[in-house]
Amino acid sequence: MRPIQMVDTKSQYLHIKEEVDKAIHEVLDTAAYINGKPVQDFTAALSAYLGVKHTIPCANGTDALQIAMMALNLQPGDEVITPSFTYIATTEVVALLRLTPVFVEVDPQTFCIDPVSVRKAITPKTKAIVPVHLYGHAAPMEEILAIAKEHNLYVIEDNAQAIGCDYTFTDGTKKKTGTMGTIGATSFYPSKNLGAFGDGGALFTNDDNLAHQMKMIANHGQQKRYYHEVVGCNSRLDSIQAAVLHIKLKKLDEYNAARAAVAAFYNKAFAGNAKIVTPYVANYSAHVYHQYTLQLRGVDRDALVSYLAEHKIPSMIYYPVPGHKQDMFASFGLSKTNMPVTDSLTDAVISLPIHTEMDEEQLSYISTHVLQFINQ
Ligand SMILES: *Cc1c(COP(=O)(O)O)cnc(C)c1O
After folding, report:
1. Angle between helices 239-249 and 17-30 in degrees, nearest 10
2. Does 241 score more than 90 pLDDT?
3. The domain 252-375: what is its CATH number?
4. Most buried by CB count within 10 Å: which residue of 199, 210, 235, 304?
């Protein structure tokens, strides 16, 4: 059996090696490392794929979130509502910009932001909501957009884990995650569903003005070289990464289908086990399975992780500490925050290996060992 990895970017590369190597060498030949034609070609292709008017490339997903908040001109003290159960990047940039993170609960089935909890958290200082399409499942955007409209709030979608995921509105309209809010942000970190061979990120919007603003902010606040209109930063996607991403974008649906096949295998293997809750898929969302995350019931998780590791099966806890309990946010005085859903998920989740290169032998080995431990 091939060794099992959480992600296997090397094997994925080998399938497209010829095409990728050629594209990289073309960039080397033109020497347009920054802002070359591959960047324009890739962002145009990504806009077409997502059905969004503007795609603004940047250096990584964290920068994308930061640039989004800068472009919306949020001011120190403004409150930004985000789930506590997410990767730190989402909430870190809020604090970095001296905005106030307001943590809310997630739905215990979808792991995504809970609209009821959002409503309760709104104050006169609230300016934005940041739903995260966690693990590859869409947040309940129709409700979030309705709340935002009612209270005149911006919506920044953190789409780092769900690129390619379809959302279906009650009237049957379908949209891609990352294109429904005021701004969408994504990451091309190598392990993401659309991953580069290094760092990368992008912003999405249908608003011409915001697109212009975000492009300027990512480029030192300038439109015309050396004339700096606003305070910005330096955040670029380089040509080599864009060339690689353009090739992988053509395969994104295939890659996401391969992930879904892995999830289907696990779901079948774990079906009916009282100690395992398999991932739920809401009727409004597809699922692109950035992670395959189980909830354990009455299982010693640490012991399971060790047992799997002994059998050379990696597993991960995404995420062991929720935002409201991170030391970095101590100054916000959140120690008394009561988040029963988030806290219980934090203790119950475990993510199993999922990527585009897994075979049945590996999947059966993994699921057999999980069940062996759980049913002992
Ligand atoms: C990966 C990720 C980010 C940050 O992306 P980077 O490219 O690593 O900066 C932000 N939010 C979520 C939910 C992520 O998974």
Report:
1. 150
2. yes
3. 3.90.1150.10
4. 235
pTM: 0.97
Q: Give the number of other Cβ atoms within 10 Å of residue 275's Cβ.
A: 14
| CA 319 – CA 92 distance, rounded (Å) | 15
Average pLDDT (65-84) is 97
For the beta carbon of residue 48, count every other beta carbon within 10 angstroms. 11
| pLDDT, tens only, 3-47 | 999 999 999 999 999 999 999 999 999 999 998 999 999 999 999
Cα–Cα distance, 155 to 147 (Å, whole number): 10
CA distance 176 to 104: 24
CB 267 within 8 A of CB 278: yes
Ligand 1 close to Cβ of residue 189 (< 6 A): yes
Domain-wise residue ranges, the chain: 9-249, 252-375
pLDDT in tens, 294-331: 999 999 999 999 999 999 999 999 999 999 999 999 99
One-letter amino acid at 145 equals: L
Nearest atom, ligand 1, residue 199 CA: 7
Let me know if the fold of 9-249 is the same as that of 252-375.
no
Nearest CA to ligand 1 atom 10: 89
- Rounded CA-CA distance 165/188 in Å is 15
CA-wise closest residue to 180 among 161, 155, 143, 162: 155
pLDDT at position 335 over 90: no
Domain 9-249 annotated CATH 3.40.190.10: no
Alpha helices in the chain (DSSP H): 9-15, 17-30, 37-50, 61-71, 88-96, 115-121, 141-151, 208-218, 239-249, 252-270, 301-310, 340-348, 360-374
Other Cβ atoms less than 10 A from the Cβ of 92: the count is: 18
Ligand 1: does its nearest atom lie under 6 Å from the Cβ of 111?
no
